[in-house]
Amino acid sequence: MPEIDSTALDMLFNTARTHAHWQDRPVDDATLERLHDLVKMGPTSANCQPARFVFVKSAAAKARLEPCLMEGNKEKTRTAPVTVIVCHDLAFPETLPTLFPHTDARSWFEGKDSLIETTAFRNGTLQGAYLIMAARALGLDCGPMSGFDNAEVDAAFLEGSTWRSNFLVNLGYGDPARLPPRSPRPAFEDVCRIA
């Protein structure tokens, strides 16, 4: 597979930024479907695909989300065209006969709640990262964040389901004029080892 060009690398990594201020431009549902079509192509263990996404767009849904947020996250979430609740589904083993049909992968998880939780969280988080990269690839800006009460979000949006919230991602078209200077990044030798 050939290496992608510098423009694509800039879009995904080098010049992409975390946004907190948004242009007044909507993100249509077709774009969200395209986004998911990319995310689902990323690898997960045994193709378990445990991530679930709640796209919070309407004023009513935003009003339900706002009380769950820390104060510093309220305005940027209120003004974002879309806020994605990145979740994982604890019932993902039920989908394995379809998603990983060549062996009985569902049996790997029978009676193993800890393994289910770890696998769902790890792979759902990975898929949340794919969501950020896929959104950037589609020309969207992202504002991923913690700073909310998971239990409150689960009660407001996931009640009665096997889905659990992990983190949030604001999506839209950021206002580049309001970006602060980029924060430093660590050097290779400070955070990496080659064994």
Structure in words:
The structure is a single chain. With 195 residues, this protein is α+β, with helices and mostly antiparallel strands. It is 39% helix and 15% strand. It has eight helices and four strands. The chain has a four-stranded antiparallel beta sheet with strand order 1-2-4-3, sandwiched between helices. The chain is globular and about 55 Å long. The model has no long low-confidence stretch (mean pLDDT 98). Its cofactor is FMN. This is Putative NADH dehydrogenase/NAD(P)H nitroreductase GHC57_16220.
Tags for this model:
EC 1.-.-.-; NADH Oxidase; flavoprotein; 195 residues; FMN; Nitroreductase; globular
Can you lay out the helices and strands and say which pair or pack?
Blueprint lengths: L5 H9 L14 H11 L11 E6 L2 H7 L5 H9 L2 E8 L6 H4 L13 H25 L3 E5 L4 H8 L5 E10 L15 H4 L4
Antiparallel strand pairs: 1-2, 2-4, 3-4
CATH topology: NADH Oxidase
Q: Give start-end ranges of low-pLDDT stretches.
A: none
Number of helices: 8
Inertia-based shape? globular
Largest sheet geometry:
4 strands, antiparallel
Q: Bin the strand percentage.
A: 5-15%
CATH class: Alpha Beta
